Amino acid sequence: MSANLQPMIAVSDLVVSYGNYVAVKGISFDVRQGEHITLLGPSGCGKTTTLRSIAGLERPTRGSILLDGKPVFSADQRINVPVEKRGISMVFQSYAIWPHMTVFDNVAYGLRVRGLPQKEIEAKASQALDLVQLRHAADRPASKLSGGQQQRVALGRAIAFSPSIILFDEPLSNLDAKLRASMRIELKELQHRLGISSVYVTHDQEEALAISDRVIVMNDGKIEQIGTPDEIYSRPTNGFVADFVGSANILPGTIVGPASHHELTVFQLNTGERLNTRASTNSSGAATTVAVRTALIDIRRGFGHRDDRNALEGQVLRRLFHGDFVEYFVNCQGHRVTVRRPPTDIISEGEEVTLLFSPEHAVLLER
Amino acid sequence: MQNLAPPASLWRPSGATKIELLASATVALVCVGLIVYPLFFLLAESINVGDPQTFPPKDIGIDNFIDLSLDLTVLLNTAYVAIAATAMAIAAGFVLAWMLTRTNVPGKALLERLLEIPFYLTPLVGALAWSILAAPKSGFLNQLLVTVVGVSDLLDIYTPFGIAWVMALFEGTVAFVMISAVMKSMDPSLEESSRVTGAGKLRTLFKITLPLVLPGLLGAIVFVFAEMLGSFAAALVLGLPGRFFVVTTAIWQYTLSYPPEYGKASALGLALFGVMFATLSFYRWMVRRGTFATISGKAFQPRSIDMGRARYGLAAICWLYVFVAVILPIAALLLTSCLRFATVIVDQMSFTLQNYETALTLDAVRSALTNSLELGIGVATVGVFVMAVLVWIIYRSRLPGRGAVEYVVMFPQSVPRMVFGLALLTAWLNIPIPLYGTLWVLAIAYFTVLMPLGVRTLSGVVLQIDKSLEECAQVCGATWAYRMRTITVPLLRPGLVAAWLLIFIASVREIGVSIYLMGPNSKVIAPAIVSSWSSAGTELTAAMAMIQTAAVLLAVLLLLSLTAKYFKGA
Questions:
Q1: Is residue B61 part of a domain?
Q2: Same domain, yes or no, for B336 and B360?
Q3: CB–CB of B471 and A71 under 8 A?
Q4: Which domain holds residue B375?
Q5: Per-residue confidence (pLDDT) for residue B293, from 0 to 100
Q6: ipTM computed for the complex
Q7: CB-CB under 8 Å, B5 with A59
Q8: What is the per-residue burial (b if ≥16 Cβ within 10 Å, else e) of A79-110?
Q9: Which of A141-150, B198-207, B286-295 has the lowest mean pLDDT?
Q10: How far apart are CA B110 and CA B145, in angstroms?
């Protein structure tokens, strides 16, 4: 086996507890070479604790963490390598910019710690400053920068000493929406160029989907699903993921059995309508739910539209105009279904409509 | 081949080495011992009904406490002075705080600084200054009143009201600071939303503003009352000549009598401590209960009410207060210290620098001055480092029992300073190490009673520094020593210097503990001023007070310029 199949980070059975409170309840995952992975979840789900455990800033209770094949933490072998010896890099939520230093000193810190010759320090720090477009501000005191600039300094400092792993702890959460969007693109660019493996923590699902190779959805100290952004979005395995990532309608009902068309399962809503869903289970008779993304439902005026897609008939209760999209709340026999459409051919409140969505987009959930 | 078993030294239990844990535990234990040990002696002495000089006591009883309850005059005196002083301090503090936080009085920043000065002047210096100003007949103000208006003896500072007046002016500053903080931490949108819902200015004031400020205001009243109960210097200077005793001066009198009645003094001290502790516990309970209202930890930009022309009138009131509490006392002391004979009648004045020359050359006075400065510098320098370790233990370590350490370290602030002095006296008299009568015992005592001040100041700074600033350096690969040198100490430096200056100031102006512990060869300035006041002339005493005040104010100025720079940088 070649060396680059070995994961850069291997977390297994990680448990972190504080007294009686268990923040992380036995999770395992790998980060491959050059891969960008995101831990996504609501606040208090244990994602930051996991990240800090990898950095060495928290001491886990059980499990092990391997960096590039070498154990940095192992409860069984009683290993806990101190933070400063792990050779990783991290961008903090608060940026952690040292206010008593200049921008250059901040960025050069990791290089000076490593005792590099002055020439090399200047070269590498300047290179990092170029990458984050702050060359011009090198001699400014770091405390006199704007939020976006501080964010860049933090990033420059994290990449300056050429680490092979960078950890990001909600680095964009303190920026305003516009700046956040442009920093996302920059981050993705930077990652592409440097080929660094990274773990990124965020509670912003849009951000997670946009910049990751794979997303790990966490809830209550456990992993709910691991997958590519596309997998997480279009094939959520459970209600939590479907609800937390993107926006979805979750409709309760029971599984009837396999459909005549191969690879599909018939699902009956509590109100009687039958839907064709993509099968991921064979257990007929089981009560479960189906998730349908609000953006993947077509809406037509009037009743009686029929094609090979699923159809639900109802009446538009409310309409919210968001600009980039229009949100309709449709009452289908008591189910309140949310639909997002582009802002063209707007339907009025009170109109009767048919909702159409393909079996491919009706995802049967595990629970 | 790779050796999978790592070296055992990489394993660090809860992030600290055993040596670090041991060292911090030792520091914590020593500091706790310094506080608990004297208090134990105070308790033991208070139940000693036999020979007051023997220790441990042979005859034990509660007679000392029974004697106290019969001495009603002292208790009534204390109640009168404390209540009157609290009322004056709170009234002045509330009005000043409201004007300086909620109205557009001109010159706010300067006034706010000036209003803190009386606290640094100390009640002792304040009492001296006001007795120069308002002693019957000879007081400057009385002299002026006789010559200008023709009324004689209008003012007499040697009265219970006079004592309360001086205490309110020079110890009541804390009321202004506390009430200002409450008013500053109130979200203006709470009032604005009341106005928007249709309530008028008056209705908003009574229904929203006052209920929100009330818990904080009550807290300030209780806290200031506790301070006044333990106040010593003003009653000593102004009450003793007329044999008017409050609890603190009564304790002092018991220890002066021959043979010293340590038992009675200790019992009275313990009783005072009990009342003060109960009051302060009540205060803390109230603060905890009242947090719903205003304290969000955020500082708001309070909405200033435009007072129009009236704001110059308000400014005049503020300046009047500054005149009475700062300018007048300092001017009186300065004038007296430069005269052969204290007077305000211009053609009788005869200026001289003789008093300063005497103060700086007379052996007793000079040694008191140098001792105080040495103690201030020494205690501040050593203290800052030990207290920094304590702060680290309490707020950043995972040492078991750090909560208890915090409680004990903060404990001296609920013990009246001069009761603690008495406790230290009995404790250090009865220890086989011959420390009593040396500067060392004073140094240890200062360190003990100033621990709350230092720890509070340093913790404020430590808690302000985001933990991630240190963590980030760690992630960058910096070792503990490298981190300390490049990140932690530089960030802490302003706080360390501020704490140093505050401890220095508090040491130089210390009286409650010093008065018990200084010996013939270890005199310090504040008690020396007291004894000079009763034995030598007013003019020499004024010169000594001016020298002490100059040293303190110099340190205050340094502190202010430092904090100004610090806040501009942050």
A1: no
A2: no
A3: no
A4: 16-48+356-466+495-570
A5: 43
A6: 0.81
A7: no
A8: bbbebbebbbbbbbbbbbbbbbbbbbbbbbbb
A9: B286-295
A10: 31
